[in-house]
Amino acid sequence: MSGIYIHIPFCKKACNYCDFHFATSVRLKPQMVEAIIQEINLRTAYLQGEKVETIYFGGGTPSLLSEEELNAILYTVYQNFEVDPKAEITLEANPDDINKSHLEQWVKAGVNRLSIGIQSFKDEHLKWMNRAHNSEEALQCVQLANESGIHNISIDLIYGLPQLTPKQWQENIQAAIELGVPHISAYCLTIEPNTNFGYQFKKGQLKPIDDEVAVEQFEVLMDELQNAGFDHYEISNFGKAGFYSKHNTSYWLDKPYLGVGPSAHSFNGKTRSWNIANNKKYVLGVESNELMTEEENLTISEQYNDYILTKLRTIWGVNTDEIQSKFGDTIAKYFEKNIQKQINNKLITLNSNNNFVLTQSGKFVADRVCMELFYTN
Ligand SMILES: C[S@@+](CC[C@H](N)C(=O)[O-])C[C@H]1O[C@@H](n2cnc3c(N)ncnc32)[C@H](O)[C@@H]1O
User: Fold this and answer.
1) At what angle are helices 135-147 and 100-109 packed, to 10 degrees?
2) How far is the CA of 191 from the centre of ligand 1 (A)?
3) In which element (H, E) is residue 54 found?
4) Are 37 and 76 in contact (CB under 8 A)?
């Protein structure tokens, strides 16, 4: 089983928080699509004949692709790989791009899952984040998507905004539940250096919220969504049964994936590689058959640290046998010794499959728990 990630590096507007790779000028879009197609052709061997079970268009804003561009990319994927007929095909879409005609095109192309960047149902917050949509579009787009026959819908929400009151956060969560979507990803705002918020922070104009407030909002989120029938299957991801993101789950469970497009990452079990995060250089490189890709061979301890960082945040957790078979005796012993302290502190517990998972209190300090389990020798 494997997956393909396709990065579409264009957006209508720059969101004030976002440090993903994108450009707001679409001038290079036609050349970019050609280059992505060419990269897929060049990297067919990467997945070593593994069946493709998930295809994910991320960004940037993939909903900016024209019908022809989307079809041409998918056609190339099908030409080069064995794609499972039941593959999950996700398109990240922004509410302002969701309309009847686009939805028809996406369904026709084979898209069967939408990940919609709603972020908030409050106009004042959408404006503050420089989003291109308003709260009405946020509500309408899900209804339109459902009417088009795409029911596998995820929405992204952001909490931890300095001005977000507890009442507003409750209302946002309720609005998401009432929309009836089967999957919600919710992230606490991080202030990244090379973003508008990063500059505001540097000038002292933006003050991040206190950790306790973030923890309270996360707690409300977990309680409300679990009461509404969502499984908290990864630290930032909540899904109804049968609607977990297959694509993202394969990242967390260490499955191989090929990432194409500028800044996209790939993983083949042993090495991680990433494409240059520059649209012009990426296009020129691919045009001359030279992939601008950097590669990193992970040491055993780095592979183990990655495993802890990703898998311990999931509902499936980690176990000593798997650690021993993947990373050897020394690391397995190190893990056993260190996990005990986390159990004593009630941050980790054993689940019914005898796997170690984060407790409710462990989820609040997941980063710290992972760091304490890292092998640094
Ligand atoms: C790749 S982005 C999605 C891009 C999509 N085109 C959009 O504009 O919504 C994935 C999600 O990460 C979250 N995100 C990105 N930067 C963030 C930040 N600095 N803090 C919190 N969440 C962030 C947002 O919820 C975003 O929808």
Assistant:
1) 50
2) 12
3) strand 52-59
4) yes
Cα–ligand 1 centroid distance for 339 (angstroms): 32
Structural domain spans, the chain: 2-251, 300-377
Ligand 1 geometric centre to CA of 322 (Å): 32
* CA of 185, closest atom in ligand 1: 25
Residue nearest to atom 25 of ligand 1 (CA): 156
Enter the pTM of the model.
Answer: 0.96
> Which residues have CB under 8 Å from 42's CB, separation 6+?
286, 289, 291
Q: Calculate how far, in angstroms, residue 20's C-alpha sits from the geometric centre of ligand 1.
A: 8
**Distance between CA 340 and CA 338 in Å, rounded?**
5
Angle among Cα 232, 22, 278 to the nearest 5 degrees reads 120
Residue nearest to atom 11 of ligand 1 (CA): 156
* Residue whose CA lies nearest to ligand 1 atom number 7: 117
CATH topology of domain 2-251: TIM Barrel (3.20.20)
Torsion of the alpha carbons at 220, 226, 230 and 236, rounded to the nearest 10: 40
Q: For ligand 1, atom 6, name the residue with the nearest CA.
A: 61
CA 350 / ligand 1 centre spacing (Å)? 32
Query: The domain at 300-377 falls in which architecture?
Result: Orthogonal Bundle (1.10)
Distance CA 373, CA 376 (A): 9
User: What lines the ligand 1 site, CB under 6 Å?
Assistant: 17-18, 20, 58-59, 61, 92, 94, 117, 119, 156, 158, 187, 189-190, 192
Tens-digit pLDDT profile for residues 150-194: 999 999 999 999 999 999 999 999 999 999 999 999 999 999 999
Nearest-CA residue for atom 17 of ligand 1 = 18
Q: What are the 10-residue block averages of pLDDT along the chain, 377 residues in total?
A: 96 97 97 98 93 97 98 98 98 98 98 98 98 97 97 98 97 98 98 97 96 96 98 97 96 92 92 95 94 89 93 96 95 96 96 94 95 91
| Each residue's pLDDT tens digit, 9-52 | 999 999 999 999 999 999 999 999 999 999 999 999 999 999 99
Question: Distance (Å, rounded) from C-alpha 171 to C-alpha 166?
Answer: 9
